[in-house]
Specification:
single chain; three-stranded antiparallel sheet; 3 strands
Length: about 130
């Protein structure tokens, strides 16, 4: 078990493991918000700490400012569907999972959230992979 404190970084975790942990904690936070359950302070602190550690490691590599700008960019349903390789209708079904915001009759999403969801879905598909015969 790795204990994350403000004094010691998550030494035992690789960058991929750190991303996966942050994703799992973020999913739990999102689920609790969606069902209206209280969010414990320790869970918020853990998310913030994992996020800070991930940002620190990513900034050590020096990501381009363009990449950071693209993550904060807002996109519509059709572009999210292209990124996720699915239909616009399916993106609307996933809107809550993607932290989408409804403006009038349209949904908008943060590009970074959509790309992270797509990456996680490719790494951990919800169905078993079958081999082609």
């Amino acid at each position: 078990m790795v204990i994350l404190t403000t004094d010691h970084p998550a030494v035992g975790l690789s960058l991929k493991e750190l991303r996966d942990c942050r994703f799992a904690v973020a999913e739990q936070l999102h689920y609790r918000r969606r069902i209206g359950a209280p969010i414990p302070a320790w869970l918020r602190r853990l998310h913030d700490r994992l996020d800070a550690e991930l940002r620190a490691r990513m900034s050590a590599d020096g990501p381009e400012p363009e990449a950071a700008q693209q993550d904060s960019e807002m996109i519509g349903t059709p572009e999210a569907a292209t990124i996720l390789e699915c239909t616009a209708r399916h993106v609307r079904r996933l809107a809550a999972d993607l932290d989408g915001q409804r403006i009038g009759r349209e949904w908008i999403f943060h590009r970074g959230t959509v790309t992270e969801y797509a990456r996680a879905r490719k790494e951990h598909p919800p169905w078993p992979q079958t081999r082609a015969s």
